[in-house]
Amino acid sequence: MVTLNEAARALVYSVAEKYDNGETKIAKLASMVKLFTAESVMKITTDAVQCLGGYGYVKDFPVERMMRDAKILGLFEGTSQIQKLIIARRLQE
């Protein structure tokens, strides 16, 4: 779980640094960040729910809310499938 979290953080910082340095063609990178982080956070929260067993689904535990939030992250601002299409199109350029 920690490895995915740190990898996502490093990817976000890398793309943010490129943007801060004036790079304008970062649509592919931004889509890669969105895709990777959305899929990573879903895996991380799924693993957390699995670790807690039945308690992972109870509203008394914060991981239940985190799982719901993680699921919606993959839908906001374009689904994972849309992000994959954007990446594929940018690779063809």
Explain what this protein looks like in three dimensions.
- By secondary structure, the chain is mainly α.
- It is about 75% helix and about 0% strand.
- The chain is built from four helices and no strands.
- The protein has helices at about 1-20, 25-50, 60-75, 80-90.
- The longest helix has 26 residues, at about 25-50.
- The protein is elongated.
Helix and strand element order = HHHH
Quote the distance from N terminus to C terminus.
Answer: 34 Å
CATH architecture: Up-down Bundle
Instruction: Return the structural class.
Output: mainly alpha
What are the segments in which pLDDT stays under 50 over at least 5 consecutive residues? none
Keywords:
93 residues, mainly alpha, Butyryl-CoA Dehydrogenase, subunit A, domain 3
Summarize the structure.
This protein is mainly alpha-helical.
Question: Would you spell out the secondary-structure blueprint of this structure?
Answer:
Layout: H1 2-20, H2 27-52, H3 62-73, H4 80-92
Helix pairs in contact: 1-2, 2-3, 2-4
